[in-house]
Design a protein that fits this description.
Blueprint (H helix, E strand, L loop, with lengths): L3 H52 L5 H13 L1 H12 L4 H6 L6 H9 L1 H11 L5 H5 L3 H12 L15 H6 L7 H7 L9 H40 L5 H6 L9 H22 L4
Helix pairs in contact: 1-2, 1-6, 1-10, 1-11, 1-13, 2-13, 3-6, 6-8, 10-11, 11-13
C-alpha cells in the first residue's frame, strides 16, 4: 500500500523513542528515590551530631549555632518527609483527587507519597516550605500536590513551571495521549498511511526533545546522589562518641580539628539537601 513503508518506519521510530524516554524516566525516578533516602539518613546524622555537641561539656557555642542554622535551612525537606510519613497509606489518593483535573495530580497520586516527595525535593523549588509547614494531613498533601503540579497554590506561586520537571520524571505520563495511542495503533490507525506517518514522526520528534532535556537532568541527579553519599560518610561520629573526652577542653588539637571538620560537613550537607535539579 502507498506510504505503507513510511508509516511502518515512523511507528518503529516512535516506539524506539518511547522506550528510550521511558527507560530514562525510570532511571531518573530510581535515583530521585535513592537520593531522598540518603538525604533522610543525613538528616538523622545531623540530629545525632547536634545531640553530641549539646551534650559535650564546654562545647564551642558556634558549633551549636551552625547546626541550628543548617536545620532551619532544611525545613522544607523535613516537611516533605513529614508529608510522606503522614500519607504513607492511601490517604494521598484522596488528596490527589483535588488536582485530578491535571495529569500531574493523578500521576503523583499513582506514584505514592515517597516517590512524590522524592521528586518534589529533587526538582521542586525552595520557596514553598513555609506555607506547607503551616499545614498538616490532607491539607499539606493537597498543597504539596499543587506545588508539584505547577500551582504552588499555598505559597502564591513559585512552584515548578507547569509541572514540567515532574512530567519529565514521570515517564509516559508526560506524553500526549496521542503519542501512546499512535504507538499502540489506536486513534491514528484509521488515518491514511501518509498522514499517520507524519503524525508519528511529529510525536517522535517531540519525545526526542524531552529526551534531550531529561538526559542532562539525569546526569546532574546521579552526580548529586554520588556527592551526597560521599559527604554522608563524613557525618559519622561513632569514634568521637566512643573514644573522645566528654569535655571539649580536654580534646587534643587533632580531635578539635576533626570535630570542626564534621561541623563543616554538616553545613555542606545542608547545602546538598537543599540543592535542586533545574
Amino acid at each position: 500500500m502507498f506510504y505503507n513503508d513510511a508509516k511502518k518506519k515512523a511507528f518503529e521510530l516512535l516506539k524506539e523513542k518511547e522506550t528510550e524516554y521511558k527507560n530514562l524516566g525510570a532511571h531518573a525516578e530510581d535515583y530521585a528515590l535513592k537520593l531522598f533516602e540518603v538525604r533522610k539518613s543525613a538528616v538523622l546524622a545531623i540530629e545525632r551530631i547536634e545531640d553530641y555537641v549539646n551534650a559535650l561539656a564546654n562545647s564551642p557555642k558556634e558549633f551549636s549555632k551552625e547546626i541550628a542554622e543548617v536545620k532551619l535551612s532544611i525545613k522544607e525537606f523535613n516537611e516533605a518527609v513529614r508529608i510522606e510519613i503522614e500519607n504513607s497509606s492511601n490517604n494521598i489518593k484522596g488528596a490527589g483527587a483535588a488536582v485530578a483535573g491535571t495529569a500531574t495530580g493523578g500521576a503523583i497520586a499513582a506514584l505514592g507519597p515517597t516517590a512524590a516527595m522524592a521528586v518534589a525535593t529533587t526538582f521542586g523549588t525552595a520557596s514553598t516550605g513555609t506555607a506547607i509547614a503551616s499545614l498538616s494531613g490532607a491539607a499539606a498533601t493537597k498543597a504539596a500536590l499543587a506545588w508539584l503540579g505547577g500551582g504552588a497554590l499555598a505559597a502564591g506561586g513559585g512552584g515548578m513551571s507547569a509541572g514540567s520537571a515532574f512530567l519529565a520524571m514521570a515517564g509516559p505520563i508526560g506524553w500526549s495521549i496521542a503519542a501512546v495511542t499512535i504507538a499502540g495503533g489506536g486513534i491514528f490507525a484509521s488515518y491514511k498511511n501518509k498522514k499517520a506517518a507524519e503524525e508519528a514522526n511529529d510525536v517522535a520528534k517531540k519525545i526526542a526533545v524531552d529526551i534531550n532535556k531529561l538526559r542532562p537532568k539525569l546526569n546532574s541527579l546521579i552526580h548529586l546522589y554520588d556527592e551526597t553519599v560521599k559527604l554522608k560518610s563524613g557525618l559519622n561520629i561513632s569514634l568521637m562518641v566512643n573514644t573522645y573526652p566528654k569535655n571539649y577542653l580536654l580534646f587534643s588539637e587533632d580531635q578539635k580539628k576533626t570535630l570542626a571538620s564534621v561541623i563543616n560537613n554538616v553545613r555542606a550537607m545542608g547545602e546538598l539537601i537543599n540543592m535542586r535539579i533545574n
